[in-house]
Amino acid sequence: MKNIKYLTKLDQISELGDDEQFALKKVTEKFAFRTNDYYKSLIDWDNPDDPIRRIVIPDPGELEEWGGLDASDESVYTTTPGLQHKYERTALLLVADVCGGYCRFCFRKRLFINDRDEIARDVTEGLQYIREHEKITNVLLSGGDPLMLSTNKLERIISQIREIEHVRIIRIGTKMPAFNPHRIIDDPSLLEMIQKYSTDQKRIYVMAQFNHPNELTDAAVEAIRLLIEAGAIIANQTPMIRGVNDNPKTLSALFKKLSFVGAVPYYVFQCRPTSGNHAYVVPIEETYEIFHRAQMDCSGLAKRARLVMSHSTGKIEIVGRTDAYTFFRYHRAADPERIADFMIFKSNPNAYWFDDYGEPVTEYSIASNGDSS
Question: Which contacts qualify for 289-295: CB closer than 8 Å, 24 or more apart?
């Protein structure tokens, strides 16, 4: 396996001058820093606005007081240690507390600071909860990044989930195809494990996170190919990030490249109002304009992503706007009675999050028939 060196201190980044390292030290004292030599090699150090640099190298703007550490109230939906159950048919297991690199705009950065322990180091209790809730058909492994676990440890978790008959889909939420594709390329046992447990009737989905077209290197594309050949289905999700993908040309290029290599564009997220994230967030209505202008330049296969907010009450899709109004609907709702509710709000160009809109002008409720899939 290719020896990837992980970098956790600014003085390991020789391209940063002494003055810049000193200025950024205050940021890393508050929010953890981590990258690796592969991902660092993608940065154009002659370009201070390089998007890969923006993703992983600290920024002084992170010190601005703004947002909270649990912006979507994940703690409310934590039912057993490491397991969240927000939507009726999907359970989320946090199985890792480290990533191949730390995105500066991470919405779970709380996991990497203050010794917070929200990870299921023993999944026994979480698996028992899933067994007892037969409506759960999807289990999402997340963290941190599950592919930071050894393949043996990951297989122990996946094999136990596969023993639960009503679970049809296992999702692996990972940025490793972007951060370190050699984790996939150089580990045949990982691909053998996926081939074993991604069956004709019960697939494994790899929920990748490519934020910018520059991450889709030859190595990343090879990793995607190997995962697909092993039987995984690849879907991509990314937040919209200021200075990374916040223009239609870049975002459409990302959508197109993903569709070319077989990774389905799945979600574009409104960046959550997490502590330290103000420098990375685009206002909702600007996000909408960028997103739809990007889609206008894509084929149908490349424009399948939905633009959503992972709000505490559910995934709220931003579906349209006029000069006067902005339109939302629940794509998924924690409360089954709110599924597909449609809401109209007065336009607010300064809104970063759903809560910034106040009361709706109109709200149309579609009562649930019990199907909250």
Answer: 290/240, 290/246, 290/247, 290/248, 290/251, 291/240, 291/251, 291/318, 293/248, 293/252, 294/248, 294/249, 294/250, 294/251, 294/252, 294/255, 295/252, 295/255
Q: What is the mean pLDDT of the chain?
A: 95
CA dihedral for 29, 271, 53, 59, sign (positive or negative): negative
Q: For residue 169, give both structure tokens.
A: 């889909």
C-alpha closest to that of 265 among 302, 294, 292: 302
Query: Strand (E) positions, the chain?
Result: 6-7, 35-36, 78-80, 83-87, 90-94, 138-142, 169-174, 204-208, 233-240, 263-270, 306-311, 314-321, 325-333, 342-346, 362-364
Task: Give which of 102, 91, 103 is closest to 128, Cα–Cα.
Answer: 91
pLDDT at 175: 98
What tens digit of pLDDT does each residue of 293-340 get?
999 999 999 999 999 999 999 999 999 999 999 999 999 999 988 988
| Dist. CA 102–CA 3, nearest whole Å | 19
Residue whose structure tokens are 């698996």: 127
Long-range contacts of 37-42 (CB under 8 A, 24+ apart): 37/4, 37/5, 37/7, 38/4, 38/179, 38/180, 38/181, 38/182, 38/219, 39/100, 39/101, 39/178, 39/179, 39/180, 40/7, 40/13, 42/214, 42/215, 42/217
Beta bridge partners of 141: 93, 172
In sequence order, what DSSP letters do the residues of 193-260 get, joined into one string?
HHHHH--SSS-EEEEE---SGGG--HHHHHHHHHHHHTT-EEEEEEEE-TTTT-SHHHHHHHHHHHHH
Report the alpha-carbon distance of residue 285 to residue 302 in Å, rounded. 22
Rounded to the nearest 5°, which phi and psi values hold at 68?
A: -130, 170
DSSP character string of 1-25: ---PPEE-SGGG-TTS-HHHHHHHH
